[in-house]
Specification:
By secondary structure, the chain is α+β, with helices and mostly antiparallel strands. It has three helices and four strands; from the N terminus they run H-E-E-H-E-E-H. The strands form two sheets. Strands 1-2 form a two-stranded antiparallel sheet. A two-stranded antiparallel ribbon has the order 3-4. The radius of gyration is 26 Å and the shape is elongated. The N and C termini lie close together (10 Å).
């Protein structure tokens, strides 16, 4: 391995370690919001060039509390998305057509145009993109093979 390759490898490992530290900090803060603490939560260093978080074991009561919090959060996200979708649908129903007319050989030809409705697939993809922590938001830049 050349010196440049070693430097590049070290940078990738340092970035992976920092990603693990950031993930531990984010998860610890999120758990604290729900009054939960996972004492064994730690950064386990880079694994295969990626950050690795060790969650450790926990008792059944804690696991059930964590499952409840995650389910409630997921439900809140679904409700927020549904409300956003309903607002978009209501906006779409309130769109007013514009009428254009032209005269051709003494006849008046009218054409009504309605602003385009939001594309549901694009709206879904944008909602996923804007959802913090969603796997689709992960940085997927190509990494060099080791």
């Amino acid at each position: 391995m050349t010196h440049a390759e070693r430097v590049q490898y070290k940078r990738r490992q340092d970035a992976a370690y920092q990603a693990g530290e950031d993930a531990v900090t984010n998860l610890r803060a999120a758990l604290a919001l729900a009054d939960l603490t996972l004492p064994s939560l730690s950064n386990d260093g880079p694994v295969a060039g990626h950050g690795f978080v060790r969650l450790g074991g926990c008792n059944a009561a804690f696991a059930n509390q964590l499952a409840e919090v995650i389910a409630a959060g997921a439900d809140a996200l679904r409700c927020r998305r549904r409300a956003s979708t309903m607002e978009q649908l209501q906006e779409g129903l309130q769109r007013q057509p514009t009428v254009h007319g032209v005269e051709v050989d003494g006849y008046r030809i009218l054409r009504a145009e309605v602003p385009p409705a939001p594309d549901p697939v694009a709206a879904f993809l944008l909602a996923v993109r804007d959802t913090p922590g969603h796997p689709a938001c992960a940085d997927r830049r190509a990494s060099l093979a080791h």
